[in-house]
Amino acid sequence: MQDGFDAFHLARSQTRLVSRLYAQAFGDAYPAGLATYSSCNRALLTTLLKRLHLCPGQLLLDAGCGSGGIGLWLARTLETRLIGIDISPVATQLAARRARVFLAPGRAAFYTATLSHLPFPNQHVHGIVCVDVLAFAPDRTNALRELQRVLRPAGRAVITQAVRHETPAASVEQPVRDAGFELEHLDERPEEPAAWSRLYRLWISHETELRRALGDEQANRMLAEAHHMLPRLPDRRALALTLRRPTHDGR
After folding, report:
1. Tell me, what CATH number does 203's domain have?
2. Residue pair 129/221 in contact by the 8 Å Cβ criterion
3. CA angle at residue 40 from 13 to 219, to 5 degrees?
4. Structural domain of residue 43, as residue ranges?
5. Which pTM was predicted?
6. What burial letters (b/e) apply to 188-207, b meaning 16+ CB within 10 Å?
7. Domain presence at residue 251
8. 95-134: pLDDT as tens digits
C-alpha cells in the first residue's frame, strides 16, 4: 500500500493537472494553494478553526497529512506548532519542503507513520485534524484509540467521515466512545458528495490527459476509484466529527 501512496504523491506533485481538476470541481470553495487532494474545502477549514480551540504556541497533529497543506495552513492561521504523519515518505518529504513557505523554521516536523502506531508519547498534542484518512485504517477503533492516547485531556480531534444516509447515530458514536472520546459536535457537510461527483466525472472525461501527465498506473487508479464511487455518492452522508478527550475527572 505504501508504494502506491508514494507513487500517488510523486506523480501528482509533478503536474498541475490534478489540482486544476480539483479546483474546477470544487469551484470557489476550493482552497487554492493547499493542494490537499481531499474533500477539504473552505467550509471545512472554517469548521476546523472553530472546533479545535487551539491557542498560539500549542501543538497540532495533522494525522494523514499528505503533502501538508491543511495542517500548514491551520498552523499558520492559528499560530501553533505542527507535527504531521503520513504513511508515505514521499508525502512527508513534500510537506517538509512546503513548510518553508508557510511557517518559520522549527515550527513544523513530519514523520512517516500510520494512525495505528503514532511515534509520539502520551498526551503529546493539544489538537488533531484527520481529513479523509480514518477510512483507510485497518482497525478504525484502534486508530481512534491511538489518536486519543496522544491527545491531551480536554483536547479536540476533528475527523472527517462518510457514512450511508440510513446509518444510525449509534453506529457513528459507539466507536468514538469505545476509543475514550466524547462526541462534542457533528457537523454535516452537504456539499461534499456533489463535489466528489463533479471531480470523478472530470477524471473520466480527462482520461487521455491524465494518462499523459501521470502515466497509466496512476490514471488507472484514479479512474477505478471514479467508476467505483460514482454510483455510491447519492447515498453518501459526509460529516466532520469533533471528538473531545475528557479530563481526568471526567468533566
Report:
1. 3.40.50.150
2. no
3. 40
4. 2-244
5. 0.93
6. ebebbbebbbebbebbeebe
7. no
8. 999 999 999 999 999 999 999 999 999 999 999 999 999 9
